Fold this protein.
Amino acid sequence: MRPDSRATQATTRPDSSMSVDDEESIATQSTLAMRAKQTWSSSAPKPKGHFKEFALPKVPIDTAEDTPSCVRFSQELCERLELRRREAASEPTTGAFGLKSVRQTQNQCEKDFVTIMKTSSEREVGGFSQKIATVRQGLRAKFVQTVPLLSLEVISEEEQFWLVGKLSPCNFLKGDVICREGEAGDALYIIESGTCGLTKMEQGELKRICDIKTGQYFGEMAVMFDVPRMYTVTAATTLKALVLTRADIFKTVCAEHIDKMKQMARMQILGAIPLLASLSNKQKQLILRGMRSESFTAGQDIMVENYASGETHRCLYVLEHGICSQERKAETPFREPKCQSGSFFGMLELVYGCPQLASVQAVSDVTLSSIGWDELPAALGQEEFEPALEIMRRSLRISLLRSSQLRFANMSENHLLSVLGQGQFKTFKPWQVILEKGQRIAGLMMLEEGKCIEHHADVRSLAFNKFSTTDSKQHNRPGDMLCTADSTGDEVVISPYSLVAVTPCTFWITDGPVRLVGNRFRADGARWSRNFSDF
């Protein structure tokens, strides 16, 4: 109980039996109580929650609507509130918000929530993008590892890492020319997705060399040496390529490894030769190591048309430096006055042993790499020779078919394999009749290997060698089409002569017109019975 209450009770309830001294004593106590009351109101601490003791102004001091009225009209509480706001603003844990009203706090909480969610979302998107970039970098590193020029056998792991970071993606649409034959080049291309085709001008005609697919590459010679492009590369589909420039390579890789890269770059030439294009990188490297270097002076003959290849001249030549000329005077004559680095000669002579099909002469001092038929087993080794020979024969058959007729010139490898599947390869013994005069032919006949003659007289005379050479015409060039219908229709050709084998001959023969289909099925839906690997 408060002291003034006790004093009030003492003064309001006097006892009637009190004396004069008692009354004076009570009066004195009442006076003391009044003084104590005045002292407590001015200096004693005020208990919390008792706001009625304060003099409230008529005009609100705090105008916030959600502030309690007792605080709005109290000068002291408003000062305390302002002090707490300043203190809160100076504390780093509470930020610059300070103490605010309930509504202001709710609004600030909503703003903070939106900011936090936005920041979190940005962090998630940024983290996801970082993950995608890491995965993409890993995939590109795998592409780089498949390029012998950039493998760890040639350069260090650190150099390979920095080169992966310098790869520049480049997109091409179907039909875009990536690089042209004869143009200067200084970049290596790795196909990240899509397909492109290699073409080259030969004998005045644009010939398709091969297709380059995802994970494969081209441009090793151009990026390592200052030589013009040897082929025209065109995007066959929408294509994405990774580009590495010569400047980036020479800035990143040490001189010792640069020399190794130059040696490995020569494999690009082997990969562009149809005979070797489908070989594995290991097989190409073995052949490259087995090749020898030969030099010829200006005006010297390298090959002579119709010269018997034999065992010593049964060679494949690859031009490294200098200029050569190539000329053929046969039924379809042609002349190529300037064969530059990357040109090759003797592909058919190497495998089939046929007479040299054209004359090759050095225009300037030249350097060539060559390998002979008798050197292949030693270069490839016992385990790799037979598998490699099978691959090379199949690649040659595709190349022969592509160059045999104009309609096959721009067909893809899969299309040509489907065409080969419509025929079969037959071997004939010496002096065996392949075709009789007047015989009806509805399909194709292509010479792959051997020598045969056309004979217009009685075939029986061949048994006694009683025939004139003027009545006979010799065929020994692989890829020659003989007694063949020129269209894919149901036309029938009547043979104007007899065809007789002089040496063991191999022909590819179809029973009827060729159906140009893009898969492994005939026009009637039946599946090809022969496996592509048999070709």
Summary: The longest strand covers residues 205-212. The first helix runs from residue 3 to 12. DSSP finds 14 helices and 25 strands in the chain.
